[in-house]
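Progress narrative, Year 2. Work on Peroxisomal biogenesis factor 11 from Absidia repens advanced from sequence curation to structure prediction during this period.
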Amino acid sequence: MGKPARKPTSSLTLSAIQKYISSLEGRDKSIKIIQYSFKLLLYYRWVEAKRWSKMVSHFSQTRKILRVGHCISTIKDMSAMYSSSSIHKYPLQQLATWSTLFITLGNEVADDLYCFYRMGVFGPAIGKKAEKVSIYCWFICIWLDLKSNMESLHTLSRQQQQRQQQQRTQTFSLDDQQIHQHKIFLGRLSCVKLIMDGIFCACDIWEPSFSTGVQAWAGFFSGSLSGYKLWSRNISS
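Result:
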């Protein structure tokens, strides 16, 4: 009995693209890469501002609309955590987790309110305040995520060192080693992506004179790195 025919590479690539584009996260990352690519072109005056700046603004609003209601996922996490049997264990860790969830929820709700303000649902009294709350909550979330990612990366690197020491007495498959190295690589990408987000958000808070160019580059790199991570996840699955 013959072996089943393997799918051609082109078919696998098209399937991965379809999976990437059909997901909400994939559409968001795709639009973000296009949006900040054009922001760079506009910043360096390689395209006509009058013609393309409005399109870039529409991309930004489209991404906000795509993420409306994202707070439901955080509320679900909070509900699951509240009903968990381990609620009374490790009180300091629980406090830190709850604080992070509340900050994340504040960011997402404020983002939704600001999106509705841009759509004309709310006035500037709510919209401007929501924008400020969103920026500051996002800034805190970025550094909390960066801390968590760096701790995970440190754990993976330590495991890698232990594996290298154990290779004298133990044999690891090549696939297993490659998977572990890929996890470390993606962990490093996540840290760089979060640093780009932190730079972008810091420009929103302190508004330096050079923020336009810095935010264009930071947004482009952040979108590209998160897009690559999602693409890599789709390919591997």
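Residues 25-236 form one domain. The chain has one domain: 25-236.
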